[in-house]
Specification:
The chain has 450 residues and is of the alpha/beta class. Helix content is 61%, strand content 6%. It contains 18 helices and 8 strands.
Length: 450
């Protein structure tokens, strides 16, 4: 008996760490997409099941194999319980530990989101659905473990689970999103109703019950689980991918103005307000006379979804226009992305491009790996260097490459350092004088000597 308990203890600790680590690896890499938004955090945790579920299945297969070799004969000899009872106990253990590991990772993710945004609204019904998802794979792994060969059952459970999930993600995402909490859609302004999540949990647990009672002498429970799975699946498929609702309170605008900069963000992203304003002020200080003293940034990503939100957006734009502010919206200027957190590097570059026009024509240099530098490149490089943004293209994917290692600035009459040393008054007057040329990309090198 002691050896069986020790095997279970080692598996429990290992599976707990493995599931929590799998979830962490799945969600941390793309934290900018969900950190700060409760619904997006929950959705990302669901996507983390792509790694956690195979780990659960593998653990179920391994424990069943081990119990066959180390426990079945021992316990059967004592005539205390039969093999089916031992096997079911293994399923319960694996399921409980896997769900506990998921809860550890989910708690940390939601705590991180709450620390960033100041809001904590985790969905308990979605958590129940995630638990049902893991229970399904624990049962599937335990069924494979009845093969009794760990070297075959464990890899088959892990790889098979991953391949099945991966195939469904690419070939049948609509059915996967309808029947399970595994959903790859953006959830920034949406939420899954509690009754959908609970129905998904019922479906998943019923499917798990079919496997759990597969070897029962009485077929009543097996048939009941099969009927329950069929009915809940029919209900979920009838609703389909319309199983989420627009969260109006999350999309309502939260506007704040300070130092001539008005920032209007959806409430779910309002924790980024200070970051956005600081970036605008930094760009304005770097390009005095070019960036207006009054500017409004409005995130209208949720436009066209709800009439109330459309009215709020229209009101914010009218208010900014009447105040004489330059209005930039995410739909027309691309100022703000769809991620939960604002990428400072990307925001600086995007703002700079609003005021520094791109030149036209062939800028290649025959026989050289460098491109011919233009005044626009010069000003963009100056702006990025002043704000500590990499100029070699490493700031973010598709970032501009304007460093001296890729662009030839030999035609420039002034160096970057010399231009940066100009007084604020001189730069302000120069930018104001050449604002039109800078905006349309027609600025010439001779303009720097004036």
């Amino acid at each position: 008996m002691r050896s069986v308990v020790l095997v279970r203890g080692r598996v429990a600790i290992g599976l707990l760490v493995l599931v929590a680590l799998a979830e962490a690896l799945a969600v941390v890499g793309g934290h900018d997409e969900w950190l700060g938004e409760t619904s997006a955090t929950a959705s990302r945790l669901g996507q983390g099941l792509l790694l956690a579920a195979p780990a659960t299945a593998a653990a179920g297969a391994w424990l069943t194999c081990q119990q066959h070799h180390d426990g079945f004969r021992m316990l059967a000899a004592t005539a205390v319980v039969d093999r089916i009872t031992i096997w079911r106990r293994a399923i319960v253990e694996v399921s409980a530990v896997a769900v506990l590991g998921f809860l550890v990772a989910a708690s940390l993710a939601h705590a991180w989101t709450a620390a960033v945004s100041g809001a904590l609204r985790p969905s308990l019904s979605m958590t129940v659905a995630y638990g049902g998802f893991l229970v399904c794979f624990a049962v599937a792994g335990s069924l494979l473990g009845r093969i009794q060969w760990p070297m075959l059952a464990v890899p088959l459970a892990a790889v098979g689970s991953y391949l099945v999930l991966g195939t469904l993600v690419y070939l049948a995402p609509r059915y996967l999103a309808a029947l399970t909490p595994f959903d790859t859609r953006s959830m920034t302004y949406y939420r899954i109703p509690w009754w959908i999540s609970l129905t998904q949990a019922v479906f998943l647990l019923a499917v798990a019950g079919v496997g759990y009672f597969a070897f029962s002498a009485s077929r009543g429970r097996l048939v009941s689980c099969a009927w329950l799975a069929s009915l809940s699946a029919a209900a979920l498929l009838f609703v389909g991918t319309a199983n989420r609702v627009f969260d109006v309170p999350a999309a309502e605008l939260s506007c704040s103005e300070a130092a001539g900069v008005e920032v209007c963000l959806p409430r779910v992203k309002a924790f980024n307000t200070a970051t956005v304003r600081d970036v605008v002020l930094d760009v304005r200080a770097t390009l005095p006379g070019l960036v207006p003293e009054r500017i409004a940034l409005i995130d209208d990503e949720a436009a066209g979804v709800d009439h109330t939100i459309d009215e709020e957006l229209a009101g914010a734009q009218r208010r900014a226009s009447s105040a004489g502010a330059l209005t930039l919206t995410s739909s027309t200027a691309g100022i703000l992305g769809s991620d939960a957190r604002v990428d400072r590097n990307r925001l600086v570059v995007t703002l700079a491009h609003q005021f520094i026009g791109l030149p036209r024509g062939d800028l290649s240099i025959p026989g050289s790996s460098l491109s011919r530098g233009t005044p626009s490149d010069f000003l963009l490089r100056y702006t990025l260097e002043e704000l500590d943004i990499p100029t070699d293209g490493s700031a973010f994917p598709a970032a501009p490459v304007v460093d001296a290692g890729h662009v030839d600035y030999s035609e420039s009459p002034v160096s970057i350092d010399e231009f940066a040393d100009w007084s604020r008054a001189r730069k302000s007057a120069w930018f104001a004088e050449h604002r039109a040329e800078i905006a349309n990309g027609s600025l010439q090198w001779d303009d720097f000597t004036q």
